[in-house]
Structure formats: structure tokens, C-alpha cells
Fold these 4 entries.
Entry 1:
Amino acid sequence: MTESYSVLRCLWAIVREAAQLVRRDSGLYLAIVIYVLAGLIFLNAIGAADRLAFSIYFGSWISLNGFVLPTIAILADTIFIIHRFNSRRRVVAKRVFSTERLAYSLSGLCLLMALMIFQGNFTSMKNGMSVWQGGFRFDVVQANIDAFLHFGTDPWRWLYSVAESDRVRDIVEWNYNVFWFLLNFGALFFVATSPMVASVRTRYLACFMAVWILVGNILAALFLSAGPAFYGAVTGDTARFGEQLAFLARGAASSNSAAAYQQYLWSLYEAKRTGFATGISAFPSVHVGLAMLNALFVREYSRPLGAFALLYVAVVAVSSVYLAWHYAIDGYVAAIVVFAIYVVARKLIPADRRPVPSMPTRTVDRPAAAAPVF
């Protein structure tokens, strides 16, 4: 009975402290509420209330952020304790899994659940953009600008002149559809729940939301284009990107096939239905935007790692053209806009001052006479 009471007291302490941290995030929650209300007003005003997509993310988002990533985080902490400490593992474990640390992580999980609603609103608005614009009106001009900037040639032709290979395509598709997802949503979970990056938590999450809203909704809606994959369907010119699409179609049986996913998106667009990650827009590229955001924050902690992260931004941008998702300018503009978001956020959002649990850093145990590890 005493043991059960002690566990309940511990759980209550975690919840109570997490609630205090949640209150510190009130500005972020308010931004989510305003964004969702704006989305609902927009969709109702254009007669697209049937494009709501909130419930689509519930299962996958809760599974990812409520089970898969927390399990990975716990395993990582456990391996860290076993590998880097010897006789003082119990002390370290108490620090790593302390009430303060668990409360901090719980507050981050609460915010991630709110971001589930945020993502549902993003997809809802993205599905409504073509209704508002009455179609895709900017593909020809964007494709022509692309060719002009690349010496009169559509940039995919430059890429295919050196990398038209089934093996390259498979690697690029895996990176674009799997590895990019793991990196970006893993980074979101890490920043939201780990005290190791507590000082940038609010600024990162504010920038994360700004990328989706400004790049993925506002600019995308104002200059709505479908992208090379759908260029023929929206302009009638099936020849311009026909060879590229034929090459991509050769890998349609792959689980990461760009061609198969593009067919999925177009079929739902024609049926005027919403689904997981549906909605078609090319300019600017959210894929490149989020990679750029993470590269800028990584660079704050390590310039060498930041250089690799920026190189990965270039890889994502090239991949988006290679797979016919984007014109090259979609990536260029996204990177510039995200850099501007980052600069403004650094000026307007100060480092977080919330109390956070300290983390063990020693790799070996000190002798008893030495100063304490923590």
C-alpha cells in the first residue's frame, strides 16, 4: 500500500510539474489555435469544408510520437547509462529518469499532440488551395523561370544526363520519402522533449510552425503550381516532362516510388477527396524548407555538423527535382524564406529560461575523494 501511494505521489508530481511547463508554452498553443481557426474560416469561406483532414493523422501521429519515438528515446537513454557509466549507474538512472526530466518530456508530448491538430489543419488548407485558386495557374511561368536560370534547359535534364539510373532513383526515393521523414520528425520530437536543447525549444517550434504556414500554405496558395509530375495534366503539355515521368514510372512497384505516390495524390485530387498527406502544391518546397531549418539550428551547436546539414539541404533540393516533385526554384525560394524566418526568430524570441533538469555528461566514475559527478 505504501509503495502504491509512493508511485501515485511520484506520478502526481510529474503531472503537476508538466502542467507548469505547459503553461510556459501558452504562446505556442495560442498560435496553433489561431492557425486552426483561420483554416476553418478559410475553408468555409471558399466552400471547401469537406476537405477537412484532422482525423487522418490521429492514429499515425499518436503511434509515432506517443509510442515509437518515446520507446527509442528510453532505449537510447538506457544504452547511454550502461555504456558510459559503471558503478554509479543507479545514481545516473535516477537523474536521467528524474521527476523533473519526465515532466519536461511530458510537457513536450502534450505540445506534440497539439501539433497533430496543426498538421491536420495544414493538410486541410492545402487541399482547399486549388479550390480557392480554381486550379494551378503558375506552372508554365515557374517552369520557364527554372529553364531560364539553368541555361535554357529544364534542370531535370542536367541531372538525368549524369544520374539516370534505377539504382540512383531507388536511393533518392528512399532518402526523400523515408530518411527525410525520420530526420525532420525525429528532430521535432527531440527538441520538444529533450532538455539538452531547452534553450532553443520555443524558437525552434515557432520556426517549425512558421515554415509550414508561410512556405506550405501562404506562398503556396498565392503562387499555386502542381509541379513537374502533374505539369502535363494541368497545362496539356505532356511532352516537356514526359521522358522524366516515364523513367520514374519504371520504379512504380517500389514501396518508396515517387511515381506511385504522385498517382495517389492525383487520383484523390480528381475525386475531390482528402487523405493522408494529400493536397498538391509545388512552390515553394516544404521538404527543402524543413531541411534548411534543421541545418540552421544544427549549425548553432556545431559548425562542422552544420556544414554537413547544409549539404543535405542541397541533396534534398536536387532530389525534389530529380523525382519531379518540384521545379528547382521551389527549393531556392524555400531556403531563402526559411533563412529569413530563422533570422527574424533569433531577434524576436529569446532563449528559453524555463528550469530544466541537468544531464549527466561524465564517461567514467570518479574516485570517492573527488568532486561529485553532478
Entry 2:
Amino acid sequence: MDSVSRKNIIPLVMGFFSKRVVYHAIFWLVFLIAMVRTDGGELSLGYSIIIESINLLFFALIVYFNLFYLIPNYLNDKKFILYCILLVLSVLILTPIKIFVLYFLLSYFPGMQNALILNQNLTFLSTFIIAGSSTILKIISDWVRYQRDRRELQTQTMQSELKFLKSQINPHFLFNTLNNLYALTLKKSDKAPEIVIKLSEMMRYMLYECNEKRVLLSKEVSYIRNYLDLERLRQGKNVQIDFTVKGNVTNQKIAPLMFIPFLENSFKHGLNNQISQGFVNIEMEVSEGSVDFYIENSKAEKLPAIEHRRSGGIGLVNVRRRLNLLYPNHYNLDIKDNPNTYAVNLKLDLTI
């Protein structure tokens, strides 16, 4: 048999053994073999198989009656006391029937018949234990299935939310950048071509890099530098923009566009509302497993009413949501809104 045939057969075999009927049948077959092997030895192998098969049949009857009727109709509906009563009653009804059938089959073995009658309580107890064990296994399997489905749902929900949040972030920055470019083209500024280049680099990053859950921190830093270069071109000489990186940016990875909303807000709601000169100071301290991002900008004491209402807008709402999704319990966000300045300090654990 060649390797191609093996590759085709393995999934078929795995699919076959994953079917519920198959592994239930395997379980009962193994159980039967164990029962036959633990038989006292008074019976022949063939007769022992017949007796234990009947014994197994009654075990299977109480198990599947419990699984398909009692548990769905009573235990799942939180009728616990009624469920217990009906389970005991079912075993009480089934036990004498089982003893009668086995007594008839053991007609050539009077000693075993007498032992069967004397050990009726043991027969009842063994049947009840099997039924109770099926209940415990059902509860455990349902719990495991619930946890698995819950994790899958959480994963799907998180992925959907992150895609939605990114779809909000990217057009948001594109819209602002195009506005900047439009304003300069109206003025026929020589800075417009440079902005086009920066915009091209930013778009390439957003389109081809930001679809990943994590990107290299170095690429995020390059994106920030491009963003700030674009703002320097637009703002002119009256605005002081400083960006300092401390530590070594090597192979650390971070969720894409995590810092950009803070940058965008610092210009849109800070410098753009300044009557005179303003500033944006940014410091990023990087270690092997963490990053500490600090940004502070000047702002007017009283923002226009419309701007003030929008000042938390899409950016900050999204970044808080993304932090909770991507860095749960592994980040610290501190925002200080002072009369003349606005500061944000975000610390991220990059090891998760």
C-alpha cells in the first residue's frame, strides 16, 4: 500500500471510530470481555458468554433508559429528587426481571441459581452503580462539551470583534490623513508629494501587516515615525514634536495600531485647538518582554463643545476594547486630563 492510500485511509478510520455508535459498541464489547474473564469458571466459555451477554443487556437497558429518557426529562430540568426516585424505581423494576431471566438460563446450575436468589441485593446494587456511573459520565461529558463550545464561541467572538475594531481604526486614520493631504494640495504645497510617500508606507503597513494578531514592534515604531513625520509636515514650525525610544527594539511583537489612537487624539484634540505654540512629547521604553508608552500633549483649557464630546471617540473606545481582548490583566492604562495638558501612559506585557 503506497503512502497516498494510507493518507486516504487514516481519515476514514478516524472518522469511523469517532462515531458515537462505534465507540459505544467498543465500550460494551470491552466490558463484556472483562465480565467473562472475571467469571467464577464454573461455566464453559460459551455459556459464560451467553450469561454475561444477558447481564450486559440489562446494564445497557438501564444505562440508555437513563441517558435518553430520565436525564433529558428530569435531571436536565432540575427535577433532581424526582430523577433519583425514578432511577431507583427503574432499577427496582429491572432487577427482578434480570434475576428471573438469569435464573431460567442457569437451570442446569442449581448452586448458581441459589446464589443468584441470595444475592439479589448485590444484583440491584451493581445495576444501580452502572446506572449512576452513566449519570456521572454524562454530566462530565456535557461539562467538557460546554467548556469546549464556550471556548470556541469566545474565540470566534474575539476574532469578530477584533476584525470589527480594526475595520473602524483603519478608515479612521485614512480619513484624517486624506484630509491633511487635501488641505495641502489646495495650498499647492511642496510638502504634498512627501505626504503621499508617507501615506503609501502607512497604507502598506495597514493593508499587509495589520491583519496579523501580532506584528513586530519595530514595524509599529516605523509606523509611528511616519505618522509623526506627516504631522510635522502639516503642523509647521510652531509645533514641537518629540519621539524618543529607549531600550532595544528587536523581535518583540505587539498588537498592531495599539498606540495610534493616542497619537491621533493628541493632534486632533490637542494641537489643533491651540491658539499659540503647542507640543507632543512621546517616550517609549522597551525591554525584552514589555513596552512602556507615554505621550503628553498640550491642549486648550476649554475645547469647543463639539470637539469635547468627540474627544474620546472611536480611537480611545476601541483601544480600551482591544486591550481587554488582547491583553486581559496584562496591561496598565493611565490617562490624566489636566487643564493644559493631556497625558497617557500605557504599559503592555508582551510575553502573552
Entry 3:
Amino acid sequence: MSTTQSYKPLLNIVSSHNSKAIVKKVAIRLIIGVFLLFLLFPIYWMIVTSFKTNLEIYKIPPQWIPLQPTLDNYLGVFVDNNFLIYFMNNLYVSVGTTILTSFAAVFAGYSLSRYRSRLGNVVNTGLLSTQMFPVVGILLALYMIFRDLHLINTRMALVISLSAVTIPFSTLLIKGFFDDIPKSMEEAAKIDGCSRLGILYRIVIPLSKPGLLAIGVFTFMQSWNDYLFAITLIVTNSKRTLSAGISLRYLGEVSYDWAQVATVSVVGALPMFILIFIFQRYMIKGLTAGAVKG
């Protein structure tokens, strides 16, 4: 028996194993591709619809690719003063909420990380338990509080409401980063005469930049996409944010201007796409920090 014939069964096993591995990889990629197609198709259809007229939108069968794309919808959006008002209000509320949430989460997370006590454990459990309750559960209470404080129909009410929702999660997230920073570094800085606030700003925060970026992007996204608080606490058109403005201005009772709705949605979602594209690696690192220990 030749050497080739003696190794032939082994070669057949290896070849069969490789074939199964290739088939498995192809099947997994096909499943992922179908899943991504299912998730991304609404975004594609929204973008395509923004380049159509209302007559083309209602055509049957639908045009998957516009034959005569138009920019009139985009020109109309930027000429419309109401859209710019909604956009700037949304930006003001989102930036304000992000700053307030980040500031509060840093101090709260650092306190829970470095000052261990029974009260701290209770606070930590309380912050974690807030994630179990729906946002609508606190809406009535917040509305009554803001009514008594005469803050209804103010952007400050939106900033405070959204901060109340985002601070618990942001605090728990940034606390995980603070827990991973060795205390020996802070002790060395303290020996050199650095104060507690100096340690926080010169050592702890620079080492926690991925976590800060993660909670910043998370908070900005939550604020930018808010609809429930905006539709409840704001009653005048000049102070509405983007999501509430779109639903109340561009969606009528009898007919919808789908071309304008799609265009406004694309322009409104563009800052989120840019933000995620720039900071996606920091978000993944920040949101998965502390998931695996040891």
C-alpha cells in the first residue's frame, strides 16, 4: 500500500470537515445578510422616498429607485422656518441634557465607586431598579411638579425630565469605569498634595474617556429621539422639538405629505448617523466595559 493510499481516509475526513465549515460560514453570513436587509430596508426606503414626489410615492408597483430624483423636498425643508425652529430646539434640549447628565453621573458614579457604605448600596440598588419602570410611569408626576413650578411649556422642563431618565443608567455605566481604576494612583496623587477634586479631574476623568463618551452619546441619542416628554410638556409651536414637530405639522388628519415627512426624517436622523459613525468604537467599549471580569 502506497503512502498516499494510507492517508486517503484522513484526507477525506479533513476535506469533509473543511466543506462543513465553509457551508456553515456561508449559511451564517446569509442569515446575517437577510437580517441586515430586514433592518436597513426602512432606512433605505425613507431615503429613497425623500427624493420622490407624492405622485411617485403612491405609484403601484412602487419605484424602488426613483427614475427622476428631485431635491425640491430638501429645498422646501430648509426654507421652512418651522423645521429650523424644531431642529434648534432639539439641539438645545439634547446638548443641555447631555451636559447635565454627564456632570451628575460623574460625581454620583465616583461617589458610589470610592465611598462604599450601606447607604451607597441602597442608592446603587435604587438606581438599578429605576430601569425596570416605564418612562410613562413618571410622566404624570413630573407634569404635576412642573405645573406647580410654572415650568410647563419650557425647554428647561424637557432637559430636567430627560436627565431624570438618563442619569441612573449613566451613573451605573461610569461607575464601572471608576471601579477599574486602581486606587493606588489616587493615593499617590494625594501624597503629592492633590485634592479630591484634583484627583477626579486630573486622573480619574482622563482615564475614563471611553465611558464619558459612551454616556454622552447615549444621552444625546435618548434626548434627540424623545417624543413622549416633548408632546406632553410643550404646547406651543415655537418650543417644540423635532419629533413632536414632525408629528403635529407634517402629518395631517386627512392626508399625509409623505415626501416631506421622509425628507424631514432623513435630515433629522443625519446628526445621529454622524455621531454614531464617529464615536461607535467608544460606545461599544463603553457599553461593554465590565461585562467580563477575571
Entry 4:
Amino acid sequence: MKKIRNLALGAITSIGLIAAASMPAAAATECGTSDKITIAEMTWLSASSLAYITGAILEDGYGCNVEIVPGDTVPTATSMLTKGKPHIAPELWVSTASTIWDKMIAKGNVYKASDIFASGGEEGWWIPDYVAKANPDLKSITDLKANAKLFADISDLEKGRLYGCPPGWGCEIITNNLFKALGLDETFELFSPGSGANLKASFARQVTRKKPIVGYYWGPTDVIGKYNLVKLDMPKHDAEKFKCLTDKNCLNPEVTGWAVGEVAVAVVTEMKTKAPNVAEFLSKLQVPNAEISTVLAWGDDNKASPEEVATYFLKNYASIWTKWVPEDVAAKVKASL
């Protein structure tokens, strides 16, 4: 975005603006409002990068007045519900804020413009691709029991180790109940990683050594793209069985798969009338899971900021984002790079 990009790009941006100004007025696609449009930057890499991708397109392509503001799922959803700001949350996990989301929909001041991830949010148990290739009989979570020793840790060579969900996260209860439902306590140790950072480090350590590992993860994330993780098959999602899995006091947990996570491009409703061109763009805003995981892996490898990840995506994945916008908008964004 022009206001926060490296000043070294100023000359290129000026050239792009001159080129855009030479277009016939009738062909130009405008923002539609001079009011500031605020975009929530969540605290994890995919959401923060998507905020900058959205902001760059709005600012450089449509000429909007854009501000990136700090956010997180529940605080952002609450603020959108009660204050109508921020105007856009490019990656709002509806399943995490379902109560607030239901209130938004009932009130009518916020709507889902699009599903940001083409395959939805993914949760489950994952193994590295080299483990999957070397063990073709290991395809599903129901195959784990017979392959326990493959994942044995030096602390107990008789049992496999399954890395669970970090403590305090909603997935911890689900993973614990699923572990029990599968009867894995006979052949596996359910290991708590202690934190999300430790879980990531555990996958990094094992993959770097080309060692087997199985554990909980979610996507799209840099970890899945960087370490080529393969999600183990799970049974079809059963809402009633899954409801019990989410209860720490579930007496009889049964095996079922996670529901596909609903992850919305959440937008305040007034955007439809105030800036219809922007609303049209947001209705097409969607990224393929595999590609965005690869982009995030690049960001992690290069210790890139979210803004740098956004620029990398815009430079290298034009085949994706140019489908979201008119040709003149795409031309102005490309010129700004």
C-alpha cells in the first residue's frame, strides 16, 4: 500500500499512477467513497497478510483511503457488531465466533461477502508427505492404531506419540475425546505440545530430520505448505457426534470428522451502497488453500512481514487475484508493484 510501502517503490508507483491517469475516464473503476475504509489485521500470518493484500488492491487499484487496524477474531467481530468497524475482516473464523456472528446476521449490519479459503478452514491430524509415501496403508486416523510404533518416541519405544492440540484451545478437548474414541491410549501417548509455537517447532524438528510425526494442525498455514503435510482421512462429519467431542465431559465419544471451518470475508453491510465496486471485489476474494499455504511458507522461510508476504503474493500469483478485479484495477495494482 502506498502509505506504508517502502519509499524505494515511490518512483515505480508514480509511473503506475501516471499510466492509470491516462486511461479514459469512462474506463476507470473507482472506489466510490472518499471515507476511510478500515481493514482488520489479525494476529496470525494468513489473516494479517490477507489484510495487506486486500488493502493494497483497494488503495492502489481502486484509489480508496485505506487503514489497516489491529484485530483478533472475537474483538473484531464484537466491534463490527456494535460499532460497524472495522469495515472489512478478510479472515474471520465464523466457527470461533459463532454466537457473535449469529447476532451480526440477525442485526443485518454485517454480511459474508465470500468464503476466503476455497476449501474452507481445515483441522485434523497430519503426517509429513514422506511418511505417507513410505506407508501406503496409513491413510486414515483409523489406521493409526496398527502403525503406532512408527511414531514411537525415544522416551517410550513401545508406544507412538501423537502431538495434541495446544492447551486452552478448543481443539484440545476435541482431540482428547477423539483419541479416546479411537482407543489409541493402548498404543499411543497423547503428548501436549504446551503451546502453538512448540507444536510448530515439533513438526519442524521432526521433518528436518526426516523422522515420522503425527499430530493436530490446522490450515491453511505456513507449516502445512513448508513441511508438505498430508491430512489423514477422517469419517464424514456427524454434527451430533462432533457436539459430544467438543464437551470435556463427553461420556461416550464417537469417531467423526471435523466440520469444514467456515472462514468469512466479513464486511459491514453499508459497503454495498457506499462502495459497490469494493463490495463486488470482496465478493470474489478467495484463495486456494494449497497456494496460500505455499505463500505463507515463503513468508516464514524469509522472515517476511505481512506486508512483504502480500507484495510477494501480488507479484507471483497474478493468475489468482486478477480474477477478483476489473482489468483497469489489475493494471494499476501491477504498476504499483
